[in-house]
Amino acid sequence: MLKVENLVAGYSGIRALRGVSIDVAGGEFVAVIGANGAGKSTLLNAISGIIRPTSGTVALDGHQLEGKPAHVIARSGLLQVPEGRQILPDLTVHENLRLGALARHGRTPDFDIEGILKLFPRLEERLKQPAGTMSGGEQQMLAIGRALMGAPKVLLLDEPSLGLSPLMADHVFSALVQLHSRGLSILLIEQNVHRALEVTQRGYVIDQGQVVHQGASADLATDDSLIQHYLGQEPATA
């Protein structure tokens, strides 16, 4: 579904990605993990067209997307839920969701507003509320719902649990598992390594802008030396 090959990108002359290659098959749930500054968010921004890669290729369903404007990439079905959510705070929840539909470009969505409210029941009672008045967790639900309104072929998520309470993070991850069970392809960037590897099927480890390990999520999660050396985190306790 999504194939990224030898992607090189950066900011202000600094190379943050040094030839990254990853792929996401149809219906697959894949994590990209790494320490802060490893290049994870740069990877997502280069895939989705927020920054222009220096070299390398990005293909969705065999169609080349690298170098195209971000709105063209979104309309192709590659939709990102950005770090920090970036909802429109002065618009209502309902208005934010309706704006997400602009990315459909003729595709039939799996989720309409009613379906999103079933996935995130907390949003139903807040439909007429300005989005900026909601909690961080509710705004994250809205950001995911807005992307789903665009009928994504692949959903890209950048740190969806960042700044959330453990309970809200549980709600978000539970929703992602449901989306995967319905066949949606998902690429997840997540600082909570252990949680990311619990819910995904495969994972890539990025260090200093390069993929240094990849494999089944269950195998990566039990590789204590990898978790400590590349991610700077303690292994999960039994």
UniProtKB/TrEMBL annotation:
GO BP terms, alphabetized: L-amino acid transport
One Pfam family recorded for the sequence: ABC_tran
UniProt name for this protein: ABC transporter ATP-binding protein
Domain of life: Bacteria
Molecular function terms from GO: ATP binding; ATP hydrolysis activity; branched-chain amino acid transmembrane transporter activity
Protein family membership: Belongs to the ABC transporter superfamily.
Organism: Mesorhizobium zhangyense
PANTHER family membership: HIGH-AFFINITY BRANCHED-CHAIN AMINO ACID TRANSPORT ATP-BINDING PROTEIN LIVF
SUPFAM superfamilies: P-loop containing nucleoside triphosphate hydrolases
ABC transporter domain mapped to chain residues: 2-233
Keywords attached to this entry: Amino-acid transport, ATP-binding, Nucleotide-binding, Transport
